[in-house]
Design a protein that fits this description.
mainly alpha, two-stranded antiparallel sheet, 73% helix, rod-shaped
């Protein structure tokens, strides 16, 4: 059975919706990448500081201000930040999967979307 022809206006509406879904997914993927990179940086710093003497001086940037602290003072704050980043990352991944699932549901409901998506 042949699919009915979709009007030009309807095609444009579908294209806008599809583009919005794709843009939202790209934005989430970018945020995920940024948070993953920051998490890796925290991990690297923690691995570097852990074996050091707890009284050794180190520097930490907080809101654009460089602070002179000790390793003992910095490690707990870094661990807290790292744990927070992991939670944020988990939430972003959930949002990405939900958005992707919503897009797949939307595509399956719309006539001719599979063909449209392949063309773009």
């Amino acid at each position: 059975m042949a699919q009915p022809q979709i009007s030009t206006k309807k095609q444009q509406e579908l294209q806008v919706q599809y583009t919005n879904y794709k843009n939202n997914l790209q934005q989430l993927a970018q945020k995920i990448g940024d948070v993953e990179q920051e998490t890796e940086e925290h991990k690297l710093v923690l691995e570097t500081l852990d074996p050091l003497d707890q009284g050794r001086k180190c520097f930490r940037m907080v809101n654009g201000v460089l602070l002179e602290l000790t390793v003992k003072d910095v490690i707990p704050a870094l661990r807290t930040n790292s744990e927070g980043l992991k939670k944020v990352l988990d939430e972003l991944v959930k949002q990405y999967k939900n958005q992707q699932s919503d897009m797949e549901k939307w595509k399956s409901k719309k006539t001719g979307i599979a063909d449209f998506a392949v063309e773009n």
